Each structure stands twice: as structure tokens, then as C-alpha cells.
Task: inverse folding
């Protein structure tokens, strides 16, 4: 247990200095000064009331009331996800728009953490049952890219797409496709 009562008695009744109290109790001077500051901050009288024991005194000295912290506003994640799926929209861009609307909102790391937690609550895509090599999945891979015709120098925009087969496909199956 901390020597709180003896420390307070030496200060109030014996009128000892912080240095003398620290030496007699074998505790650092900074600890003595901190305890005395905390005691004065509570506004308790000396001698202490009879119903206040050492445990209750310690609870009064070392519990700091936390300021009321209101929850920070969060965006509607379904709307954010729909925006995020548009080409060229990044999570950082979504966060910048969020911060413009809510200057006291979360910082980027917390914004990403909340968004990732929300994504984890969504149902995963249902598993598709098919035989190996039976289907090819094709999708466009982002934005268009410029392609220069070497003969004419004409620049045209080309779509890039990706195709994927099941990993169980053998070379014989590929030959039949």
C-alpha cells in the first residue's frame, strides 16, 4: 500500500518539506509532490473524515474523471462502398471527402479500420459450382490505355481485359477449348 496517510500527516501536522518527507518515507520527491498536489486538488480537509479509509482516499486521489467523449460521425458505408467501386476512386479520396464534411471526424487510419470492419460483415460471394475448365471468367481490368499505331501514329484507347480459368485445368482441357 502507498504511504499516503503518513505522507499527508507529515505535511499537515509536522509541517515537513517535500524533501524531508521524501527522505523519511524513502520515496522520490516527485512522488511526494504529486501526492500532495493530488490531495489539494480533491479539496478534502485535514484531518480526514472518519468514514474515509485509506482505500477510499486512494480512489479519490488516483481516479481522473475522463472528459465526455462523443462518438465521431461515421459515413454511410454502403454509399462509400458504391463510390469506392467507381473507377479512380480510392479510400483516401473517400476519406478526404469525409473529412471535408466532418472536420472533427476520424483520421485516415481509423476511417480505413471502420470501413474494413464493415466490409467483413458483408456476406461473401456465394461459391459457384462448375467443372474444372468448363468456364472462363473475363472482366475488364480498369481504365482504358492509349495504343499508338506505328504506321500512322494514330492514338486509340484500348480496353484491357483479364481471363481466368479454374486452377484444376489440365493441358488437355486447354487444348479442347
Result:
Amino acid at each position: 500500500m502507498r504511504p499516503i496517510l503518513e505522507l499527508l500527516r507529515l505535511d499537515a501536522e509536522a509541517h515537513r518539506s517535500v524533501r524531508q518527507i521524501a527522505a523519511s518515507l524513502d520515496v522520490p520527491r516527485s512522488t511526494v509532490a504529486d501526492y500532495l498536489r493530488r490531495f489539494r486538488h480533491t479539496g478534502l480537509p485535514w484531518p480526514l473524515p472518519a468514514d474515509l479509509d485509506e482505500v477510499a482516499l486512494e480512489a479519490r486521489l488516483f481516479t481522473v474523471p475522463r472528459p465526455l467523449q462523443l462518438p465521431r460521425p461515421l459515413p454511410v458505408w454502403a454509399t462509400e462502398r458504391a463510390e469506392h467501386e467507381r473507377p479512380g476512386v480510392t479510400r483516401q479520396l473517400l476519406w478526404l471527402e469525409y473529412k471535408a464534411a466532418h472536420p472533427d471526424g476520424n483520421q485516415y487510419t481509423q476511417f480505413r479500420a471502420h470501413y474494413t470492419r464493415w466490409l467483413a460483415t458483408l456476406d461473401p460471394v456465394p461459391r459457384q459450382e462448375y467443372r474444372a475448365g468448363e468456364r472462363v471468367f473475363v472482366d475488364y481490368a480498369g481504365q482504358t490505355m492509349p495504343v499508338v499505331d506505328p504506321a500512322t501514329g494514330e492514338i486509340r484507347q484500348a480496353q484491357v481485359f483479364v481471363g481466368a480459368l479454374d486452377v484444376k485445368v489440365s493441358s488437355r482441357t486447354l487444348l479442347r477449348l
